[in-house]
């Protein structure tokens, strides 16, 4: 069994106090370690031993301030408090690691994204199948997010012509897209 770090000299204990401290250590150390492991299931044997050693060192540091009859319970309570602090630190570290590696994702779920892409592909194919380059050009530009004014500027057409070509091509586009979604049925 390991002995606490620092003997009587480090804590300025008298030989009688040092003998009493060694007796307490020998009697209570193993009980504290096993109590910690049973009470705090996340602690392994070595972690429990380390916590008990630090708690015993703290007990020695305050040896003369503690009533002789309360020293064993002080040692147990110090061990318990250190185990709780250790658990909280571990939990905070796990949360920080999880947060650091948690991807910030504003993208839609994969199935929604796949469906969106399939729809876009179907619309592009339907637009490409329309007769006449003028209507196809207007719808292609609109699918790219351009307004009627922007399409008119890019094509050199009036805004009214852009609207007219788009509205004439919609029935044809609906017909071309009528089979979309029926393939899976």
UniProtKB/TrEMBL annotation:
Signal peptide stretch: none
Family: Belongs to the sigma-70 factor family. ECF subfamily.
Source taxonomy: Bacteria, Bacillati, Actinomycetota, Actinomycetes, Kitasatosporales
Chain residue ranges for the region called Disordered: 152-185
UniProtKB keywords: Sigma factor, Transcription, Transcription regulation
Full protein name: Sigma-70 family RNA polymerase sigma factor
Keyword Transcription: yes
InterPro entries per the UniProt record, alphabetical: RNA_pol_sigma-70-like (IPR039425), RNA_pol_sigma-70_dom (IPR014284), RNA_pol_sigma_r2 (IPR013325), RNA_pol_sigma_r3/r4-like (IPR013324), WH-like_DNA-bd_sf (IPR036388)
NCBIfam families, alphabetized: sigma70-ECF
Annotated source species: Streptomyces ramulosus
Positions with biased composition (Basic and acidic residues): 176-185
